[in-house]
User: Which sequence fits this backbone?
C-alpha cells in the first residue's frame, strides 16, 4: 500500500469542518456523499444544506449550478477526496466558467472511508489542488495544520472564486449524524428556505 | 430521378431551411420557459441551437467535459430557483444514467434534448450499441422519453416535453431521430 501514514500535524475532520461552518453566515452548502454529510450535519441540519447523499461525483457541479443561479450568495461545496476524484472533469468546467461565488473544500483522508478505507488516488500522489489550479481556479491550496485551516476559514468566504481548498485530515471516520435520506424532502426544504413562495415543482 | 427536378430541389430546400430550422423551434421553447442555464456537449446537429444559446443574453451556455456534469449543474440551478436544459448526443446518455438518480430522487424538473446517432443509416459501428439502448436505458431509470422523427415534429415534441418537465416536475428526454439531423452531417 502506498498510503501515507497520518502525520501529527494533520487536521481532525469534524473540528475542521465545524470551524469553517461556524463562519457560514448566509452561505449555501452542498455536500458530497459519505462522511462529508455527517461532518456538515454535525454543525446543524439546516434547510440551506443540500446533501448529495447517494451519488458519487456530482457535488461540485450541483454547487456550480446553484452558484450561477444565486450570484448574491456564497456557495460552499464540502466533499471528500474520493467523491471529488469521481467528478474530476468538473474542475475544468468550473475553471472555464470562472464562477466567482463558488468555493470547494475537499476533506482529504486519502481513502474511501465508506467502503473500508481503500486508498484513493490522492494517497498515491494525485494533487487535487494542483489540478484545480491548472484548471483555472483563482485560488487553490492544500493545508494540513491549524494555521492553514485558519486561512481557509476566511478565504473560503472571502476570496474571489472559484476557490478550492484541500484539508489533509487524519484517517478516521466521522460520528454518524442523522440527516433526511429523502432527496425530495431535502430539495424542497432547501428551495423553501431560499426561494420562499417562488417555489414550484 | 429526373435531372431537372434534382437541380431544382436543393434551391427550394435551401430557401426553406434558411427560413426555419428545427433547432429554432427548440430555442423558442427554451425561451418560453425562461430557461437560464443550458449545459451542452458539442454536437453537429444541435450546433445552431447551441450558438443561439451562447448569443442569448439571458441564457448561460455551459460547455461540459462529459454529459453527467450537466445533470448536476441543472440540479443546482433548480435548487437556486433557475431552470435549464441539457443538450447532448445519444452517445452521452450512457454517461448520465447514474447521475439521473439526482433529479429523479429529488423530483426535480429536467429537460434533455438528445440527437440520435447509431440508428437510421449509421455507418460507424461503434455508435450502434449505445444508440440502440438509449431509450431503454433512460426508461429503465425512470426518465420519460418522447421522440421526434421529422423536423416538423421537433417543436411540438419539445414543447410537450418542457411542460412535463417544468410544469409536472419530471425528468424528460426528447430523442431527435437521426433522420431529422440528416445524413449530410455524417458523411464528411
Assistant:
Amino acid at each position: 500500500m502506498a498510503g501515507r501514514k497520518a502525520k501529527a500535524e494533520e487536521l481532525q475532520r469534524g473540528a475542521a469542518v465545524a470551524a469553517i461552518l461556524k463562519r457560514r453566515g448566509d452561505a449555501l452548502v452542498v455536500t458530497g456523499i459519505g462522511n462529508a454529510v455527517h461532518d456538515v450535519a454535525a454543525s446543524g441540519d439546516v434547510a440551506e444544506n443540500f446533501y448529495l447523499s447517494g451519488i458519487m461525483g456530482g457535488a461540485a457541479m450541483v454547487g456550480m449550478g446553484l452558484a450561477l443561479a444565486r450570484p448574491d450568495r456564497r456557495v460552499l461545496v464540502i466533499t471528500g477526496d474520493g467523491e471529488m476524484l469521481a467528478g474530476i472533469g468538473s474542475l475544468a468546467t468550473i475553471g472555464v466558467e470562472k464562477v466567482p461565488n463558488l468555493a470547494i473544500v475537499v476533506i482529504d483522508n486519502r481513502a474511501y472511508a465508506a467502503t473500508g478505507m481503500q486508498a484513493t488516488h490522492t494517497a498515491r500522489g494525485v494533487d487535487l489542488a494542483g489540478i484545480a489550479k491548472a484548471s483555472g481556479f483563482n485560488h487553490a491550496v492544500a493545508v494540513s495544520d491549524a494555521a492553514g485551516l485558519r486561512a481557509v476559514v476566511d478565504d473560503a468566504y472571502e476570496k474571489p472564486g472559484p476557490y478550492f481548498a484541500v484539508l489533509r485530515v487524519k484517517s478516521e471516520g466521522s460520528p454518524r449524524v442523522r440527516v433526511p435520506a429523502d432527496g425530495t424532502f431535502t430539495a424542497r426544504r432547501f428551495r423553501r428556505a431560499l426561494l420562499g413562495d417562488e417555489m414550484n415543482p | 430521378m429526373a435531372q431537372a427536378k434534382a437541380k431544382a430541389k436543393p434551391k427550394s430546400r435551401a430557401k426553406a431551411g434558411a427560413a426555419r430550422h428545427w433547432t429554432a423551434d427548440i430555442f423558442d421553447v427554451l425561451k418560453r420557459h425562461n430557461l437560464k442555464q443550458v449545459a451542452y456537449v458539442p454536437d453537429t446537429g444541435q450546433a445552431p441551437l447551441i450558438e443561439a444559446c451562447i448569443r442569448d443574453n439571458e441564457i448561460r451556455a455551459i460547455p461540459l467535459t462529459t454529459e453527467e456534469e450537466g445533470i448536476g449543474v441543472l440540479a443546482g440551478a433548480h435548487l437556486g430557483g433557475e431552470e435549464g436544459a441539457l443538450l447532448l448526443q445519444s452517445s452521452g446518455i450512457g454517461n448520465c444514467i447514474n447521475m439521473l438518480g439526482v433529479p429523479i430522487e429529488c423530483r426535480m424538473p429536467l429537460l434533455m434534448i438528445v440527437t440520435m446517432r447509431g440508428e437510421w443509416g449509421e455507418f460507424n459501428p461503434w455508435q450502434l450499441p449505445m444508440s440502440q439502448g438509449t431509450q431503454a436505458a433512460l426508461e429503465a431509470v425512470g426518465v420519460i422519453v418522447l421522440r421526434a422523427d421529422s423536423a416538423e415534429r421537433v417543436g411540438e415534441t419539445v414543447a410537450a416535453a418542457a411542460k412535463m418537465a417544468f410544469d409536472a416536475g419530471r425528468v424528460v428526454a426528447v430523442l431527435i431521430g437521426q433522420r431529422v439531423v440528416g445524413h449530410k452531417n455524417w458523411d464528411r
Summary: The first strand of chain B starts at residue 37 and ends at 40. Chain B touches chain A at residues 36-37, 60, 62-66, 68-82, 84, 98-99, 101-102, 105-109, 166-169 (CB under 8 Å). The longest helix of chain B spans residues 3-19. Residues 1-17 of chain B have pLDDT under 50 and may be disordered.
